[in-house]
Amino acid sequence: MPEIPLLSTDRAQTTDETDTEPLEDAALLASDIELGYGEEIVVDCEHLVIPDGRVTALVGPNGSGKSTLLKGLSAELSPESGTVLLHGRDVHERSVPALARELGLLDQENDAPGGLTVDDLVTHGRYPHRGFLDPLSEDDYAAIDRAIDLAGIDHLRETALAELSGGQKQLAFIAMALAQDTDVLLLDEPTTYLDLHHQLRVMEVIRTLNDERDVTVCVVLHDLQQATRFAEYLVALEDGAVYDWGPPEEVVTEQLLADVFDVDASVRHDPDGDPHIVPRRAIE
Ligand SMILES: Nc1ncnc2c1ncn2[C@@H]1O[C@H](COP(=O)(O)OP(=O)(O)OP(=O)(O)O)[C@@H](O)[C@H]1O
């Protein structure tokens, strides 16, 4: 796979190749976007590419702007300035259902009426593909079954959301996003509330979608070690701006851990070059 320029950070701007905008390789391309709430701008991103057909992890400390950036990429939040292109076209140019057929977003906070069953919720993921009053098609049923199976919640299909644990509810919302059956999937902390088994399961689902169906995934993860293990690219945010980007073995350095995460840690590389973080202490 050829190397592609992802972001025009200071580091990237040292080469001429960054002037070439690799549109054909970009699932999402954000240019000069400022995102915020009311008067306050909390994300200021000059240039960001989420590469097509890859898994990219957004990492950074609490409040660094990961969720806000994901909302901006998904058109849930309109930028104060700048543009976000999805496969070359402004995300705001599409109708809501048309966008939802191409791009799925699992928010950090999810809620739905507790009386709905898991099946009802996952069926909701099919609405972009059909009219509200249309009966479910064979494609709809197949997508719902596949999503429930991938999420491993077959046994919960008839259970009301109100009766689920936090982790089970999280898996139900993940299944809803999977049923949407999009080429691009943005996931905000999908492993929150999940035990280790289910965290690994969700990450395996992401890998399967990417390997077998070429789905582009951009996922916010708090666990930096998990992010380095599963993602091909990392985007590290600090105070609403991109601090660094690239393959994990390049991004995860002792400098990044100190500058961005306020952590004193060593980084060791295994024989494959994968970084392993060994934290010593939180920096005062
Ligand atoms: N709805 C909102 N209204 C006002 N300010 C907000 C809102 N949502 C987030 N913010 C602010 O925007 C900044 C970035 O928040 P954001 O949730 O994007 O960060 P994050 O990196 O996802 O954090 P975390 O890891 O804690 O989830 C924070 O200062 C936060 O207080």
From TrEMBL:
GO CC annotations, alphabetized: plasma membrane
Its biological purpose: Required for corrinoid utilization. Probably part of the ABC transporter complex BtuCDF involved in cobalamin (vitamin B12) import. Probably responsible for energy coupling to the transport system.
Domain of life (superkingdom): Archaea
First-listed, main subcellular location of the protein, grouped into a coarse class: membrane
Subcellular location: Cell membrane
Region called Disordered, residue ranges: 1-21
Bilayer disposition of the protein: Peripheral membrane protein
Molecular functions (GO terms): ABC-type vitamin B12 transporter activity; ATP binding; ATP hydrolysis activity
Pfam families assigned: ABC_tran
Keyword check for Aminoacyl-tRNA synthetase: no
Protein name: Cobalamin import ATP-binding protein BtuD
Species: Halapricum hydrolyticum
